Amino acid sequence: MGMGIGLEGAFRDFEKIMNAFKETEVPTERAAFRLPIDLQQEDKRITISADLPGLKKSDVKVEVSPEGVLTITAERKEEAGQRSSRSFGERFRGRFRRSVRLPKSAAPEGITAKLEDGVLTLVVPKLETESPENRIINIGDDSGPASMEFPPSPAE
After folding, report:
1. Domain coordinates of the chain in residue numbers?
2. pLDDT tens-place string over residues 49-69
3. Is residue 150 a contact partner of residue 137, using CB atoms and an 8 Å limit?
4. Where in this protein does the record put region Disordered (predicted)?
């Protein structure tokens, strides 16, 4: 029936795609690779996790700019003798990075980092802020001080 031919055609198409894929080059250092992260925000901290399998601490750099941008930079190097004319590789090799802007409530001087079992975990503490309360604003003029209550400014 037609179903068998359609299935054969699908397998042939799949084989063509796989053969074409095998002929492509492994991405170079210039290739854009966006490091995927998980970000969890809690009351007192922000936790950022990134999978970096096979990398050592010396392959990873974490920095925070004066503007509050946290950047993770890493490099996976190709080992000498790892590739030959008969090899095929899909794993990314080269440099990659990821930057995130920290909220104003972050305390970058207290960031801790841990690389364990191929997972980089960054814990960013938050500054302690007072709970929002109404503020009384005194307005002075010739008739004496007056006051009005205004809600606090919205938090970022």
Report:
1. 29-129
2. 999 988 899 999 999 999 999
3. yes
4. 131-156
**One CATH from 3.40.50.300, 1.10.940.10, 2.60.40.790, 1.20.1250.20 for 29-129:** 2.60.40.790
Burial 66-100 (b: 16+ CB within 10 A, else e): eeeebebebebeeeeeeeeeeeeeeeebbbbebeb
Own/partner contacts of 54-58, CB < 8 Å, gap of 24 or more, are 54/118, 55/115, 55/118, 56/115, 57/115
Backbone phi, psi, residue 155, to 5°: -75, 150
C-alpha–C-alpha distance, residues 121 and 141, integer Å: 56
Q: Label each residue of the chain as H, E or C.
A: CHHHHHHHHHHHHHHHHHHHHHHCCCCCCCCCCECCEEEEECCCEEEEEEECCCCCHHHEEEEECCCCEEEEEEEECCCCCCCCCCCCCCCCCEEEEEEEECCCCECHHHCEEEEECCEEEEEEEECCCCCCCCEEEEECCCCCCEEEEECCCCCC
Rg (CA), the chain: 27
